[in-house]
């Protein structure tokens, strides 16, 4: 039967057919998307509500965390469409505009999430390792400016992805899909270069560079905590706890995104080679939906890893569930948020070090 989706462009014939089309994908992936949607919406909504109602936007970490949760919520609203798309055997019934918008929001969330996590890591590094020197930079005003810059920069980086997505009719299987722009003969080289640039930008700016910055910050924080523990033995348990939390944060980020980035890199390699190997494309296209599920799960695990481990957050969450009136009873430094729990406990350990040194040694 002929597809009648509005905005469908001219039919495209794929040399390898619609690879990665398997019934178990069409069944399992929508279920995972649905679970991600429910868990992510509930978890991130709680983060937003708790921070806004009880913890307020008086700390840099809370501002970053609130923006990170809003970014995750913005992305999560597209999951029902992607679940429907997969459940229908890669048939896109929502038209060209929503195809572009949904694809753009996915990449938009990729950049905003990683940029906010990077900003949080830098903030934690400054707060823990250089608490005195960084006070004039770690202000609410600077945090708001940083958030605006991140939102704008991520939007600019996601626009090319939205523009290179459209609705196509695959003549091999007579299926309407939301996919990457297929070049015509007159502009084939230019479009291929554009798609390659977008893919490399996603790998470099969307993963490698932020990940190197995050790892560097955590290593420097860990070194400072170990030094503090070595100088003052009573901070042993505190330092170990903070290091465990840092390890959990890095592992969550790494495990969620690395599988997708690996297969995305393989896709880039297939773009670099003009010869299409249908067997390799079949493997990549079969594995890609599952790596995407894992990557999308990062939007759900963020509240668990960074927020729900905080006793202050759990206390305020219970107040929210009991519908207790808002208002901050006593301002808490930063244990309230995803990364900020690390700052408070690490600062305790480092303060012991400062107190144990003569005043002349304090820089």
Automatic annotation (TrEMBL):
Keyword set, alphabetical order: Cell membrane, Disulfide bond, G-protein coupled receptor, Glycoprotein, Membrane, Receptor, Transducer, Transmembrane, Transmembrane helix
GO CC annotation terms, alphabetical: external side of plasma membrane
Record flagged with keyword Transport: no
Protein location: Cell membrane
Keyword Metal-binding on entry: no
Topological relation to the membrane, as annotated: Multi-pass membrane protein
Record-stated family: Belongs to the G-protein coupled receptor 1 family.
Name of the protein in its database record: Type-1 angiotensin II receptor
Organism: Channa argus (Northern snakehead)
């Amino acid at each position: 039967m002929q597809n009648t989706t509005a905005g469908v462009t001219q039919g495209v014939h794929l040399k390898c057919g619609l690879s990665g089309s398997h019934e178990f994908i069409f069944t399992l992936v929508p279920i995972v998307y649905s679970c991600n949607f429910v868990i992510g919406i509930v978890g991130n909504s709680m983060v937003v509500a708790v921070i806004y109602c009880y913890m307020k936007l008086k700390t840099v970490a809370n501002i970053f965390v609130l923006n990170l949760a809003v970014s995750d919520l913005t992305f999560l609203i597209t999951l029902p469409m992607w679940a429907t798309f997969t459940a229908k055997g890669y048939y896109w019934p929502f038209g060209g505009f929503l195809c572009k918008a949904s694809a753009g929001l996915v990449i938009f969330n990729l950049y905003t999430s990683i940029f906010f996590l990077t900003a949080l890591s830098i903030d934690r590094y400054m707060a823990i390792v250089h608490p005195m020197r960084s006070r004039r930079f770690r202000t609410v005003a600077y945090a708001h400016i940083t958030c605006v810059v991140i939102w704008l920069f991520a939007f600019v980086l996601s626009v090319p992805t939205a523009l290179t997505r459209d609705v196509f009719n695959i003549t091999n299987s007579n299926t309407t899909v939301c996919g990457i722009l297929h070049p015509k003969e007159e502009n084939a080289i230019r479009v291929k270069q554009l798609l390659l640039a977008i893919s490399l930008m996603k790998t470099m700016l969307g993963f490698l560079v932020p990940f190197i910055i995050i790892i560097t910050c955590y290593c420097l924080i860990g070194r400072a905590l170990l030094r503090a523990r070595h100088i003052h033995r009573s901070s042993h348990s505190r330092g170990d706890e903070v290091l465990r939390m840092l390890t959990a944060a890095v592992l969550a980020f790494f495990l969620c995104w690395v599988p997708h980035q690996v297969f995305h890199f393989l896709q880039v390699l297939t773009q670099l080679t003009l010869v299409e190997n249908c067997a390799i494309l079949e493997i990549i296209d079969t594995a890609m939906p599952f790596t995407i599920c894992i990557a999308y799960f990062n939007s759900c695990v963020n509240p668990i890893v960074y927020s729900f481990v905080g006793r202050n957050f759990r206390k305020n969450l219970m107040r929210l569930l009991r519908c207790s009136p808002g208002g901050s009873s006593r301002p808490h430094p930063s244990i309230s948020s995803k990364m900020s729990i690390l700052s408070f406990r690490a600062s305790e350990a480092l303060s012991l070090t400062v107190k144990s040194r003569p005043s002349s040694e304090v820089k």
